[in-house]
Amino acid sequence: MLVTLLAAALAQDPTYDRTKEAADEVEKPVTSLSAELGGAFSSGNAFALAFNGGVNGKHVWQANQFTFGAGVFLNLAKIDTNGDGTLDDAERESKLTFTSQRVFGAARYDRFFGKMNSLYISGGGERDPFAGLLWRFNQQFGYRRVIVASEKTDLDVEIGLAYTEENFSEGVDADGNPINAEILDAHYLGARAYISFEHRFNESVAIGDNVEMIENLFTPADFRLVNNAYLTAKLGGKFSIKLSHRLAFDNLPVEGFRPLDQTTQITLVASIF
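Request: output the structure for the sequence above.
Response:
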């Protein structure tokens, strides 16, 4: 079915490029690139470093769209290894140790046919060892439907398939002893559903949310859900500030790890072009 739709899409005139340019600018390529950065550092009696950043880009030409994004979320600290509630001289001299670590990246291509439909193919990967995930790679394809595309509001839905490859780290039990994961790697085909929403109150303030769910077609109880909500406010010129919250739920986490992770971030966003 998707092959048939793709053939039909390629035969269509490129009438929609997912921008708000005037009709006579439809054929003109459009490129955008933005970067995000946030962090904190402390030293003295306590040593800690937090860093989060990312980059996002898009290129639109005729009925084609290519997007990519990558990011990192890191926390490091010098650990109170003896549990006395403070750092002694030996602990202050120790190296910074990761207390959280997530790195991710993805790229995607959309081919639009008509004003409201596209087929997409994407690939990406992530690393989150504190959630039991040494690495995960995803290859996805499917269909995208634009429900609303107005001056103030965008609403899209997607359905498709996702092939996932995973490699897990070892968990620990309640006493801190290592637990060997029953399955240290996994490969499976999943069904994917996705909803993306953004509303712009004015030229400066916008809110948005996107929800993705992937379910293992061979083990229905093995599903994961990721929700990303955000609020952005322009500071002037090319800069804005972004408050975001990420909720990640894995119904069958690696043994020794919890199913729910949440991350809240404040970042400075620079629209490079």
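The first strand starts at residue 30 and ends at 42.
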